Amino acid sequence: DSSGMFEILLIPAFKDNYIWLLVRDGHAAVVDPGDPTPVIARLEALQLKLDTILITHHHADHQGGVEELVARWQPRVFGPAKESITGCTHPLSGGERIEVLGQAVDVLQVGGHTRAHLAYYVPGAVFCGDTLFGAGCGRLFEGTPAQMCDSLARLAALPDETRIYCAHEYTEMNLRFAVAVEPHNRLLRERVERVARLRAAGLPSVPSTLGEEKATNPFLRCGEPAVVAAAQAHGAVDLSLVPVFAAIRGWRNSF
Ligand code: ZN
Ligand code: FE
Description:
By secondary structure, this protein is of the alpha/beta class. 35% of the residues lie in helices and 25% in strands. It has nine helices and 14 strands. Helix 5 packs antiparallel against helix 6 and helix 8 crosses helix 9. The protein is globular and about 55 Å long. Bound molecules: zinc ion and fe (iii) ion.
């Protein structure tokens, strides 16, 4: 239809990557096409023209398919200005508003996993790459804990009903850690069961909602007494937000 939002379709790739395909009126956009093969197959099967590629960050599992897709459809390529993105035609820094398939999309700066990582927000959905995951967050490869805290706060400020379209199926593993951090969080226990059922049925656990993440994701809960206590037990001395986040993230790395 010509009114309303694009449809959002899931293309699984590699071992646990999710590539998001946005579709409206025979046109398409794709978020983080790390592998061109399944994207081309889906575009052909649905007879879609690829207009736009949105890249969240420079890692190969997110942009490895750009070259082949550009050769075939010549789409616009949006990505972080301060990272090396193949064929980037529209470099972004965050704060911009762009148009994708007739829809206004807000670009958010969410550095931390990589230094200039971006997220793409439309009312109801955010495509956040490797920044926020189901019950977890990305590793700090290039950014600092303070930068990641800031980025997560920017995402946490979105409406609770916002669906979290992250780029990996890591939720079950993340939930095991979340339970270790907050063994007495009832909503977390319920989420563990819900996700186990989905995964056992071969279904994705993504997208979740921001409200669900705020209730169960330890990295969005670094002000909660139980999370602060867990951070203290894992070496945090200063119990303000950033050191608590850093201690929890550090514990996760060796979990
Ligand atoms: Zn990555
Ligand atoms: Fe990744």
